[in-house]
Amino acid sequence: MHGYQSSTSLADKQVMKHLILVTAVVMLGASALADEFIDYGKQIAEANCQQCHAILTDDESRHPEAPRLRELSERYPIDTLEEAFAEGIYAGHPDMPQFEASPEQIGALLAYINSIQARN
Ligand code: HEC
Q: Is the shortest distance between the CB of 71 and ligand 1 below 6 Å?
């Protein structure tokens, strides 16, 4: 019982922290918290997308065929990506790994991608 408690408490705290953050962003629309949420999305992009895609406003994709994330909205509304990510998209493309994320991580990633769109 002690082992169970100590091994899960850190993960639980992380999950709770982000759940609280998401709820706060939705309920309050507080811009400081929204910034933190977007920043979380940026970290996800750095860890999972940057090795192929340009993920900033002025960088270049390392994989020649990977579109710059800031230009995705030229192809389709960013919102339509949500479902695709939730289903673990693009498994069909050999170079793009399956990306499995929680709804909250997907939300943060999309918030970040939205924030860097060249159209804005
Ligand atoms: C190992 C390289 C690699 C990684 C990592 C990667 N991608 Fe891709 N991605 C690609 C390539 C290559 C394409 C272009 C595929 C094509 O045109 O068929 C692509 C295409 C896409 C597309 C466009 C699909 C379309 O139909 O236009 C989106 C959106 C996308 N990636 C998002 C992401 C996101 C978000 C991440 C991080 C969670 C990510 N990718 C990680 C290689 C990668």
A: no
